[in-house]
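For homework, think about our next protein:
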Amino acid sequence: MVLKLVILPLVEQIGKKVFLTQAGHELNATCAEWLQTWERFEQTIADLKGMQQGRLRISAVTTTKYFMPRLLGPFCSQFPNIDISLEVVNRDGLLERLSRNQDDLYIMGVPPEEIDVEAEPFLDNPLVALAPASHPLAKQKRIPFKRLGQEKFLMRERGSGTRITMERLFAERDTPLNILMELGSNEAIKQAVAGGLGLALISQSTLSMDVNRKELTTLDVVGFPVMRAWYVLRPKGKQLSVVAEYFLQFLRENIRLLVPQF
């Protein structure tokens, strides 16, 4: 019997760029799985020794910057030997990281429908109608939702969780949504609202410690606030590391750290 040795290239060059071949992708996935398995083994051994150490990787959408530090601070104090990496990205960036299984846990407001995940709600995420304090609707009570159809709105970029919720809300209530401008951050939206450019629907968590609150007000619209939740996610079937389990348990038991500011 003559054995024939077949050599498969792991990369290929197209122009000035280098890409993984199919064999390269398979090897990369295999190595990633092996590294994750070895990391879980190390963390399990550390846990058995009572060392409670390891690395925790979290990706979170940008709006969570208003409350995540209040949770991570006490967690780091309780588990000083755990190294935490927090990646704050927009929704599209988080979904890309989720599809590649780059992190242990993911935190966002609207779980994706196109990716199979396990999503656990852990905190209310009410959506409020924001207006400048001088707006004619500011002192009115029980404003009909249809009245919002007469206003111009400032919105986040396409794909953001708040925008998805907002577009669904207006469509479900058969109300026109007049978009004046897209802005890339909640801070920019609040400044634009304070400047009188328009109204916005925004997560109440972004207003918890706002220095510009005297310039802003939340409108008393029928059906508001729109109740949503913040979710902690992971790919369906993903085996969590010991450190990730620590964090999930800490999150469930210490959510009160986040509630008072809302």
